[in-house]
Write a structure and sequence with these properties.
293 residues, alpha/beta, 4-stranded antiparallel β-sheet
């Protein structure tokens, strides 16, 4: 099956500042992928390059199997994109804006948008500039959803929403993914939201995807290992299958992050090092901090 989005060895720089560094990233159809990374990690740049809004310095970017930079109009019509800031059509009533954008698509679901606006408490007759920041973000989401895109990309879509509006929006995403098999990529700095709805998680750090796994796999198989030896320093390097991170804490103490895949790595590692190894599950937020430290 052709991936919705496929980046291979992609690099991108702003002037002399590298942002993406030989990054590879593939989205499987029907996935709801949460993109995590610290501020400035390059999440927005990754999305813009993936959608063909920016041309990579090197590497290959395919969107629905075609080059993203000069993707055919038929492919672009299959995409819905919500940027971080919604700064257009400020003078228009929201309903007029929806009708204007809908006129460019053969299939535009006005009834679906009216129902969503009611669910979210949006006034369709209000001018966009009079809406709050969170409501303008909801308006941008409506514009991206009206043509029922196969691939929905959302850049920090809940950053301005209050908890109630955020929960209602996340429920909508789950419904779109479940009922229409829509492929969704969204970034958020609210890790609990990604834990609540994502099927897959990707972590971006120093211009590369350092981890991309199904969320269920991460919850079951990623462990933090606290390693201690009472009388000697532990080795500076480890060669262990599934090792994600390893660092010396002090003499006789180290910490490892490992993808266990059900294997008995803690037991084997303890026997190999003749040390105490204490495993524990790692919440997603702690995993993000560990891998981007």
């Amino acid at each position: 099956m052709t991936p919705i989005l496929d980046l291979e060895d992609v690099s991108f720089s702003y002037a002399d500042t590298p942002v993406l560094d030989e990054l590879s990233f593939t989205l499987r159809p029907g996935s709801l992928t949460g993109l995590l990374g610290r501020n400035g990690a390059g999440k927005t740049t990754l999305m813009h390059v993936g959608l063909g809004l920016l041309q990579p310095t090197t590497g290959r970017v395919a969107l629905f199997g075609d080059p993203a930079w000069n993707a055919p109009a038929t492919n672009r019509a299959r995409i819905g994109f919500v940027p971080q800031r919604f700064e257009v059509f400020q003078w228009m009533p929201l309903w007029d804006c929806l009708k204007l954008i809908g006129s460019f698509y053969e299939q535009w679901d006005h009834e679906f948008l009216i129902d969503l606006a009611k669910t979210w408490g949006l006034n369709l007759n209000a001018k966009i500039r009079t809406l709050s920041g969170g409501q303008q973000q909801q308006a941008a989401i409506l514009l991206a959803l009206g043509h029922r895109p196969e691939f929905l990309v959302l850049d920090e879509p809940v950053s301005s929403l209050d908890p109630g509006a955020r929960r209602a929006f996340l429920s909508t995403l789950i419904g779109l993914n479940n009922d229409h098999d829509q492929t969704i990529l969204f970034s958020s700095h609210i890790v609990s939201d990604i834990e609540r709805i994502a099927t897959d998680v990707a972590i971006l750090h120093r211009g590369r995807i350092v981890l991309h796994e199904a969320l269920d796999t991460l919850k079951e198989d990623v462990l933090r290992l606290e390693i201690r030896h009472p009388r000697r320093r532990l080795p500076d390097r480890l060669e262990v299958p599934g090792l994600l991170d390893y660092r010396i804490i002090d003499d006789g103490a180290a910490r490892a992050l490992i993808m266990s895949n059900g294997a008995e790595h803690p037991v084997e590692l303890g026997e190999h090092l003749q040390a105490e190894v204490h495993p524990r599950p790692l919440p997603l937020e702690e995993l993000l901090l560990e891998l981007t430290a």
